[in-house]
Amino acid sequence: DSFSTNYPSPVLLVTGSAGSGKTSLLANFVKFHCEISSSNRLTIAHFVGSTGSSMDLSQMLKRIITEASEWIDVEGFDPEELPKDPSELVDKFHQTLCQVKRRGELLLVIDGIDCLDQKDNAVREYSWIPQQIDSSVQLVVSHS
User: Fold this and answer.
1) Which of 5, 85, 86, 130 could share a disulfide with 122, CB 3.0–4.6 Å?
2) Are the beta carbons of 12 and 140 closer than 8 angstroms?
3) Residue 39: other Cβ atoms inside 10 A
4) d(Cα 143, Cα 112) in Å, to the nearest integer?
5) pTM of this prediction?
């Protein structure tokens, strides 16, 4: 819990070789935060490889945008109107993260970012991760 309340950076990278326990660690981290969560804190977890579609970067971003936008209560939000263009979708993802502070805080946990299928070459590897993240968002990612 000290990361979520006292860590000076909004981003934490968990690394280790395959099979070293990163997924178990993050699953327990998410479980803990869901148990202590309040109405002004949203936790979204994405475990790449848990389903076939979980490896698709665009699908992951759409899911995160949708969950966050519904929690923030963005007026007129319609998931069917999310951009199809990968670059525009990344921009929408960044905009959504900036809107979190209207409602509270977001803990976003993504396990296995190195396993995401980034088939859309319009989005360079890891360029979907914002270079600057508002203090209302904490991002925890794992990478082998």
Assistant:
1) 86
2) yes
3) 8
4) 5
5) 0.89
Closest CA to 110 of 4, 38, 11: 11
Strands, sheet with 11-15, edge to edge from the N-terminal-most edge strand: 11-15, 137-143, 105-111, 41-47
Cβ(142)–Cβ(110) under 8 Å?
A: yes
Token pair recorded at residue 73: 């209560």
Beta strands in the chain (DSSP E): 11-15, 41-47, 105-111, 137-143
pLDDT per position as a tens digit, 31-47: 998 888 778 899 999 99
Which residues lie below 8 Å from residue 142, measured CB to CB, with a gap of 6+? 13, 14, 15, 16, 22, 23, 26, 110, 111, 112, 113
Other residues' Cβ atoms within 10 Å of the Cβ of residue 3: 12
Looking at residue 33, its pLDDT comes to 87
Residue length of the chain: 144
pLDDT band at residue 2 using 50, 70 and 90 as cut-offs: very low
**Average pLDDT of every residue of the chain:** 89
